[in-house]
Amino acid sequence: MMTTVASSSRKDAIAQADEELLATLGYKQEFKRAFSGLETFGVAFSIIGLLPSIASVLFYSIPNGGPSAMVWGWAVASIFILLVGMSMAELASAAPTSGGLYFWTHSLSSPRWRNLLAWIVGYANTIGSVAGIASIDWGCSVQIMAAATIGSKDQSFNPSSGATFGVFVAVVLSHAVLCCLGTQVLARLQTVYVVLNVLLCLAVIVALPAATPSELKNSASFALGNFTNFNGWPDGYAFILSFLAPLWTICSFDSSVHISEEASNAATAVPWAIVGAISIAGILGWAINVSLAFCMGTDLASINDSDQPMAWIFFNSFGQKGTLAVWAIVVIVQYMMGSSMKCNIGTRCIKANICFLS
Fold it and tell me: DSSP alpha helices (H): ranges in 212-265?
């Protein structure tokens, strides 16, 4: 009984502190604080959706350096992404508002330019969120079609653009329905999303080397030192282009900022969510890329020319049934990315834009 009372009193104190912090910023609390610290982290980490995101962006790293770009390009870019995230985390700790990036822009800019700059940042962020939802859901539809191809006899199924677009529309509409269930449901789902993401990553890191035939296993010199440039750019520039893979994967960590007003103890939970999501994604993503580099074989041209490079690598290692089992979870996690992005970024961002910029 005493424990329950103490816990309730602590929650009330945190809620009051959250509201008072917003008041000092001239910002009135509007939303209910439904997200715990883990769930706030879950929003950023589930939108990153590590393994399915890497599956969607391998075509940036394989032709721009091959194994070296996958392993070392990822490591270099992740460090710079973490530096950006740490700067954002510091701002989020000082001003954990749902307006986020554009509220900070307005507060820290000169009076002469603050309205214009806040408007640009606000609507650029909204456009980016809309594009992000489309990108994630399109990636999900492509992965569903890849599963259909893998499951077909002799992998003879070749999905048309129209069929892929139809699946894309269905995914978007289903996410719209899911968003109607409300914040409470989405908050509770974040723990499931985090666990499934981490287990999927660890399963691939461990199972892929165990299942790969010996003839497809690469030496350390190839996996860590081979540089293959299919695009024709100078090697140095091609290596920089490979940074697009981690940049497209470890992104949208500002999603935790946009739900600051819905997070309990936001001044602590939000910055830790940002730094934690980037750090874990950087480490696990590097391990996944190392595993792929050691288990992809040396025929990089065939992998690069396939519709879905990671599915091709999995098929060579796991076979048809094993690939379908793993790929089904990849599709589910990709779908979860879209639900988190649509509910927590798109709608929250648009709400805040309307409230703040009008």
Answer: 220-225, 235-241, 244-249, 255-258
C-beta separation of 257 from 266 below 8 A: no
Asked if pLDDT for residue 358 goes beyond 70, the answer is no
Q: Which two tokens stand for residue 102?
A: 């554009």
Report which of residues 296 and 95 the model is more confident about.
Answer: 296
Q: Tens digit of pLDDT for each residue in 201-223?
A: 888 899 899 999 999 999 999 99
Other CB atoms within a 10 A radius of the CB of residue 339 amount to 23
Angle between helices 114-151 and 347-357 (to 10 degrees): 170
How deeply is 9 buried, as exposed, middle or buried, from its count of CB atoms within 10 A (0-12, 13-18, 19+)? exposed
- What pLDDT is stored for residue 343 in this prediction? 63
Place of tokens 């739900």: 259
pLDDT given at position 286 = 95
Q: What are the structural domains, with CATH classification, of the chain? A: 33-357 (1.20.1740.10)
- Count of alpha carbons within 13 Å of 240, Cβ hemisphere only? 4
CA 112, 93, 45, 208 torsion-angle sign: positive
Can you tell me the distance from the alpha carbon of 1 to that of 9, in angstroms, rounded to the nearest whole number?
12
Kindly provide the b/e burial profile for residues 53-77, where b requires at least 16 CB atoms within 10 angstroms of the residue's own CB.
Answer: bbbbbbbbbbbbbbbbbbbbbbbeb
Query: Does residue 260 come out as left (phi exceeding 0), alpha (psi in the -120 to 50 range) or beta?
Result: alpha
Query: Which residues make Cβ contacts (< 8 Å) with residue 120, sequence separation at least 6?
Result: none
Nearest to 210 by CA among 318, 83, 342: 318
Q: Which residue has the tokens 């048809």?
A: 320
Q: Which residues pair with 229 in a beta bridge?
A: 64
Per-residue confidence band for 67, with pLDDT thresholds at 50, 70 and 90: very high
Evaluate whether 119 touches 357 at the Cβ level (below 8 Å): yes
Check the CA dihedral 346-90-17-41 and report its sign: positive
- Is there a contact between 265 and 37 (Cβ–Cβ < 8 Å)? yes
